[in-house]
Amino acid sequence: MDKDYIVTKSNKLIVCNYDLSLQEQKIILTLASMVQPQDTEFKEYEFKIKDFIELLGIKDQSKYTELPKITKELKKKVFEIEEGTDLIQVSWLGGVRYKRKEGILILSLDKGLKPYMLELKEMYTSYKLSNILSLKSKYSIRIYEILKSNLFKKCIEIELEELKKMVGANAKYLKVYADFKNKVLLQAQKELNETTDIGFDFEEIKTGRKITSITFHIKTNKIKNKAIGEVCVTREDKSTNTEEKCSTELVSVDKAIFKENITELQAKVILDTAKEDINIIKEKYKQAQNVAKMGNIVSWMITAIEKDYKASKSEIKKDKFNDYEQRSYDFNELEKKYWGGNKWVNLKRFRLI
Fold first, then answer.
1. Which one of 25, 115, 147, 275 is most buried, counting C-beta atoms within 10 A?
2. Higher pLDDT, 323 or 290
């Protein structure tokens, strides 16, 4: 369990209406961060119970009896997804096992979530787990995900009643807008601005005298950006033919470096983190081959590039990076062909947030 692991979810899943507690959301998002780029099936994920208790912030003396209650309630919860004319009812947790003597908790995600969390190629959002772990309101997590998936738009308008459904604001005390504003909007605004990689301002849209919609102005939190290696993907992200050809070519180079089966978008994230320097990616991937316990290779690579991990002398001696065949490219010619000498022309499209 690592706060730098990356959560990836279909945008369709992000905008669903569901109501999970703060602790329940952290369980599901932690599980989501354990999913590997090459996974085609959900696995069983093993945690130390004491680590999970710390993650959820359970501090009272009954903490070891409280956790099973939380997972039991979460296993009961079902939400709905609209797929064309179909209505799909989906659970969150597949299996739960407590190995009490060993102090181990084993969890798995429900198989119904596979189309929305595995092998995603478009219309999805990724972010580091660290963005949501410090949030104290369940509504803040939901607003973070909704705004993160719409960051490329910079501005979105959501009807008030629809927004309440999306974030699970069903409590009676939130029916009055003033209470919703204070407990949900202003709280989320404060938390996101202080602890995540994005922030927002909002406007109240009225119909007559009644507030009926909220317009969010989404911004990158550059000052407090603790999670650079993220990307939001959508069909609405447009590019020119030249940029697309250039992107495809360089991403192919990037993907060829990896033995793991990473997606094109994950390759783009790594490429952009390295400022499109393939040599840096090769260098860090060499180091990755000598890491004893590797979690998420994409997350590790992003962090290694950002923090400029250095290889030890022993690691350099062990280098077997070039033991497998790679396609050769003339990068200078690629740059001239697709960028016209301007290396940064297409960075806006995949700019890491």
1. 147
2. 290
